[in-house]
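Subject: Sanity check before I submit

Could someone independently write out the structure tokens for this chain? I want to compare against mine line by line before I put it in a report. The sequence has 321 residues.
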Amino acid sequence: MTPRWLLSLLLCAALLSVGGALACGALPLTAGEVWLGLLGQGDAATVQVVQELRLPRVLAAFACGGLLSLSGVLLQALLRNPLADPYILGVSGGAAVGALAAMLLGAGLLADQGASLAGALLAIFAVFVLGFRHGERNIYRLLLTGVVLSAGCGALVSLLLTLAQGEQVKGMLFWLMGDLSQPQGLGGAWLVLLLAGSAATLAAGGLDLLAGGRDKAAALGLAVGRWQAMLYFAAALLTVAALQLGGSIGFVGLLVPHAIRLLGISAHRWLIPCAVLLGGSFLVLADTLARTLWSPLQLPVGIFTALLGVPVLLWLLGRRA
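---
Independent answer below. Compare away.
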């Protein structure tokens, strides 16, 4: 399949996933009712359900999936490993510690968001300082630092869950497994996605060189150290934006870019838009299943990203073999 055809199919899939998510729920809607609801016409209850309940959540799911997928693309180019995950740098662990500590203290939603952002930024700074010491750009040291920091944050998360009581535990677990029921900062997340996606696409040539190897990229005139630092901070920023929007949602940044590569797309000028579209559609589908399969009970979306992602990735690997 050519890149143009794949991009066109993924664009259609994105539109269908958004439309299907807007139609599905406790109040099933037809395509016509969804369209009228988006235009603010028709039944008042339908307009409210579409515009106030479903549309923000669907847009949040798509943006979160796109952010995680783009972060995965950049991180896999940085580490030259198609199985690298955005949370491997310890960003998710730092954000989780901050958010859960605020929840344990009984802070409000805004304080939780601020604490998770502070924890993520602290983790980013710690990994960068320890991984890029004395100006030496050592990717393996960066990776190892992130893994060690993630393990330490995991221990702190377990401690905070142990100290929590009653309803606090449920809220903490939902955050840890992904929760898009109350998206915050939707406009900012979309702005980050559009700007970062555009910048990454324009820099696709440099990403192709870096993915080919450090020595080769340096021989062709690429400032490798500077590019590594930029990719690290860009991947971390995208992960933080996704965390702020929907909590800790795993597997998307690992599965989506790898799936696109297994379909024969390796050039980053095609890989980036394809990954963003597939990641957004994938998370919209997972969130739709999370809120409808056991309605009125809503499950964490992270459960479904794993349940959907594992068999899909195994199937793709089986085809490749």
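---
OP: Matches mine. For the report I'm noting this point. Residues 164 and 170 are 9 Å apart (CA to CA).
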